[in-house]
Amino acid sequence: MAELSRRSAVRIGFAAGIVLGLVFLGVSFATASEATTSTAQDQSRLSASERHSIAPPTENVTVVAGQGFGDQPGDAITAFRPDGRLLRYNDTYDEYHDVDPVEGTSHTVLYVAANHVDADTCGATVKCTVSVIETMNLSTGETDRLHRSVAPRRVGDNTHDVDRIDEHRLLVADIAYDRVFVLNTTTKEIEWEWEAQTDFPLSGGGPYPNDWTHVNDIEVLPDGRFMVSLRNQDQVVFLKQGTGLLENQTLGAEDDHDVLYEQHNPDFIPAERGGPAVLVADSENDRVVEYQREGGNWTRTWKWSDGTVDWPRDADRLPNGNTLIVDSNGGRVLEVNESGDVVWQIDSKSVYDAERLGTGDESTGGESAKSLGLQSVSVSRSESKTLSQTVRSVLPQEITGAVGFVKPIWMSFFDVVVSVGILGLALSWAGMELWSRRHVVAIRSPITIRGNR
After folding, report:
1. Predicted local distance difference test score (pLDDT) of residue 412
2. Which of 126, 174, 336, 436 has the largest CB neighbor count within 10 A?
3. What does the pLDDT look like over 349-370, one tens digit per residue?
């Protein structure tokens, strides 16, 4: 009888812990702010006159490209009017990456996107990823396809970035084949290419051939050089047609994570605007940084991290001195002023890129941190004074990065810990019940365990 009583007490304890955990998660879900892009999807079903403001006001249109990571709101091109009302929401594709304004237009953007399809759809023997380069008029919704490519479905298979050289030529970052090439959109010919294998060993970076370099960003510089982000090599490199890699100009080094750690979307700021400098989302280090070229070396001149930023993937310096930042796993797009304070923000899951129209492509209209005298902001997770960030501060970066990549936007890291605790209690309870069915435990002196066969 005493044994049954003790067993019942343990069961009640397990049940109480699970119920309390579920209630905690329910409250977190109910009180979490709805992602602005989720609201945008709903607003897109209304006429323009019926839409209301869903984002803070700004001076220009803000465009957000969402990777989405699955069938969820956010995998779209979303544009907000200056008054915060929705201008355009287009979720034709599974993923969107780079988005840039088209020079000479007020509301047209150039973007890269992808669909993941089965073998029959792409006319192959394996699953495929179809990447496209298109332009879209955000006012009318009209699109124009410039290029389409197909690659085997695998990690790191879809084009992430493209930059315009002139009216007929594009510079393309080809993740699938670890190369950069110049595409003539009129003749459809590749006029020049650089393969990373030319200068980098296959033993470095990610696993070859699946996501070896993850070349995720390219930029055509005013002097004709190409700046390229090799994410898995932790480096931003510079290329010149006819010469190739300019080794003495490289920013970062493989596994030198004090400088860069699997970065995204570096922007070059030339000398006439206070450079040469590179503003970059230092993703795995959970910060945005800027490096100035001084005496043939790169020196860090600015750093921003508020203790909650989680895997940022874009940063643009605006003409007013503010910086527009994409906090991908943090679920937000934000603008910080010259003091590092947040002055504008929307919530959104898995955003990849953001642009403020009328300010130039990426950081084209902005000045360097050094010339602006920007103040660095560096708040550690343990200093952020939130329970979730305190939990994150004691976990390895590899774990927090993976969890942040897949968790729902409403979940904090403490919610994840609670979920793991609920699972642990459930498994322990199930294990106890299975064990007790096989054995009868008598607690006396001496302890005896009799098989229950």
Report:
1. 72
2. 174
3. 789 999 999 999 999 999 999 9
DSSP-derived letter for residue 304 is E
C-alpha to C-alpha distance for 151 and 361, rounded to whole angstroms: 28
- Alpha carbon distance 281, 288 (integer Å): 5
Distance between CA 37 and CA 55 in Å, rounded? Answer: 10
C-alpha 391/C-alpha 381 separation (Å) is 9
> In the structure, what pLDDT confidence band is assigned to residue 230 with cuts at 50, 70 and 90?
very high
Residue 69 has φ and ψ, to the nearest 5°, of: 55, 55
Assigned token pair, 374: 């920007």
- Both tokens of 68, joined, read 């989405």
Contact between residue 289 and residue 326 where contact means Cβ atoms under 8 Å apart: no
**What is the tens place of the pLDDT at every residue in 412-433?**
777 888 888 889 888 988 888 8
Sheet holding 161-164, edge to edge: 161-164, 169-174, 179-184, 190-195
CA 31 vs CA 41, 280, 433: distances in Å? 20, 33, 36
Where does the pLDDT of residue 452 fall: very low under 50, low under 70, confident under 90, or very high at 90 and above?
Answer: very low
Long-range contacts of range 197-202, CB-CB < 8 Å, 24 or more positions apart?
198/244, 198/245, 199/244, 199/245, 199/247, 200/230, 200/233
Mean pLDDT of 428-444: 71
Q: Tell me the C-alpha distance between 109 and 78, whole Å.
A: 11
d(CA 64, CA 227): 23
Q: What H or E segment, with its residue span, contains residue 302? A: strand 297-305
Average pLDDT score over residue span 100-116: 97
